[in-house]
Amino acid sequence: MANFSPRKEIDIPGDLPRAAIAVLASGGLKSAILTAHLLDEFQAVYPIYVRQGLAREPIEERSLRRFLAAVRGPKLGRLAILRTAETEQPRDGDFEPVVRTAAAWCTQNGIAALAVASVEPGTFFPEEPAQLGGSVEPPAGEPVRLVAPFQGLSRASFLEFGRGLPLDLTFSCRRPILKLNCPALHCGQCLNCLDRRAGFAGLGIADRTRYAAGDRSARAVS
């Protein structure tokens, strides 16, 4: 068991209205845990998945839908599936166009705040880390307040918030593996997979993730 004392509640600014919030959800561990806990804090939570044209996105989206179905309740809004501008070339790890696309949706739907599951400051705005916890200007309309409740938490700390959630339904892998007549597998070897495995092991949480490492009949998604 890891030696730390996690916060009892996620870190949400006290002056943030609790009526409604959108959350940028990817189907991964962090955003899944965040989405579930926002349901305890807000009257309505609207998950958003933004496509960029990456090969793994259909796998992430299916995983996200399964997780949302498992935690669904009256406060959970319908999943919004968006697409970044066609003129933007997809770059793995480039989250600024993703956040701006989600912020534009928030403006159009009258939602004043967008939650992101960033752990490290500056993840979404590497040139403007102060934007985390501030606001992001969508293409048109009023600024949308951007909040990062997990900012500054270690992986072990935010995973502690996931105890009791169906985390096996989440998908973190950057190099998903396909196998005939089977759901996509985690490769088990990329940095995301290694972090995932280490996080579960460090907390003593059963890791029910299906990894493909060593399975020669599986093929990678490219």
Structural summary, described in words:
There is one protein chain. The protein has 222 residues and is α/β, with parallel strands linked by helices. The protein has helices spanning 29-38, 57-71, 96-108, 155-160, 191-203, and strands at residues 20-24, 44-51, 80-83, 113-115, 135-136, 144-147, 177-178, 219-220. The strands form two sheets. Strands 3-2-1-4-6-5 form a six-stranded mixed sheet, sandwiched between helices. It has a two-stranded antiparallel sheet with strand order 7-8. The termini are far apart.
Give a nutshell description of this structure.
With about 220 residues, this protein is α/β, with parallel strands linked by helices.
Strand order of the largest sheet: 3-2-1-4-6-5
Order of helices and strands: EHEHEHEEEHEHE
Q: Into how many domains do the coordinates divide?
A: 2
The biggest beta sheet, please? 6 strands, mixed
Strand content: 5-15%
**CATH superfamily (homologous) name of the largest domain:** HUPs
Distance between the termini: 36 Å
What structural class is derived from the secondary structure elements? alpha/beta
The global form is globular
Identify low-pLDDT runs.
1-7, 119-132, 216-220
- Number of discrete helical segments: 5
Helix fraction by DSSP (H/I, runs of at least 4)? 25-40%
CATH class of the largest domain: Alpha Beta
| CATH fold name of the largest domain | Rossmann fold
The overall average pLDDT, rounded, is 80
Write down the Rg: 17 Å
* CATH architectural category of the largest domain: 3-Layer(aba) Sandwich
| Number of E strands | 8
